[in-house]
Amino acid sequence: MSRIDSLLSGLLPDLAAPEGAALPLAPRAQEPSRTSAAPANFVEVFRGSGSPAPNPAPARAPQVAPRAQEGNGFDFGVGGAFPPRPTGSVMEQMKQGARLLEQTQAAAFSVTLDRGPSMDAYARTQLAHLDPSPPIAGAPTALTDYTSTLPGVSAKDAFEAFLRNPELLFGAAGISLRPAASALTDGARLFLEEQGPPPVWAPITVKLNETERVVHITTLDGHPLRGTNQFVFDDDGNGGTRIRQYSAFQGSSPATSVGLALMDPIERQHDIWRSVHGQLHEMLKPR
Q: What's the pTM value of the predicted model, to 2 decimals?
């Protein structure tokens, strides 16, 4: 995920406030990084023509090392528009950039002071005011299709384990949840917190389809990327589970271009999902 340092001041939460106070795709095979030719930091405005126009609390989850291999057949393919570019009108990109700066500052307080319940209360207040920011229809969109398998584990059990263990699963990728969450529930709003540097609060909302065993995640205002992730848990016909994760995303603001120039946020995104899939396999695999 692309990230930038906060330059704002005077927007810090009141950490002394009490709890509740208002405060398709081709498989990837050792291909080179797709961010080597990152665009410069400027606003690109999508005008609907199919291409952008240039120049216009509970204890924290334990952090564990991301796993490189789990024997779960993890793989992914990429397609669409890479690298993701800032998308939307100038006004929309400025709004997203301002939210990102504000949330970066809150993330810095969270990872350095970790005031537990006070930060969780502040996170809830902030999340309540954020709107969903899915990909803009018709604009160039980066696509990734992640897959993994869980032999000997039913799709129902895998789906329920995914919902019951978000702190452990995201913790495998070095990510904490704000506010802390013991389970993913329909309509939940959360910040995915990375310690950095720089620290990041990436806001998301969750929608569940328990009948179809689908978890749908949409970014909220101020996320470094605007996009969706959809996890589908299917029976593989042999008593096991096939997990398919469909990811679609665009840049949310000029910060996307900055992040691509300074680091490799796309590879970081792949590492996050590799770790989440791997941790689920580690939890459920037959012993």
A: 0.75
> Which residues neighbour 3 within 8 Å (Cβ) at sequence distance 6 or greater?
104, 194, 196, 198, 200, 224, 255, 259, 263, 265
The answer to whether 258 and 38 are in contact (CB under 8 A) is no
- CA torsion, points 108, 113, 116, 118, in degrees to nearest 10? -80
DSSP state of 26: E
Q: Tens digit of pLDDT for each residue in 114-163?
A: 777 889 999 999 999 999 999 999 999 999 999 999 999 999 999 999 99
CA angle 126, 83, 56 (to 5 degrees): 75
Q: Which stretches does DSSP call E strand in 109-251? A: 142-150, 175-178, 189-194, 200-209, 214-219, 225-235, 241-251
Q: Is 208 helix (H, G, I), strand (E, B) or coil?
A: strand
Residue 78, token pair as written in the block = 């990429």
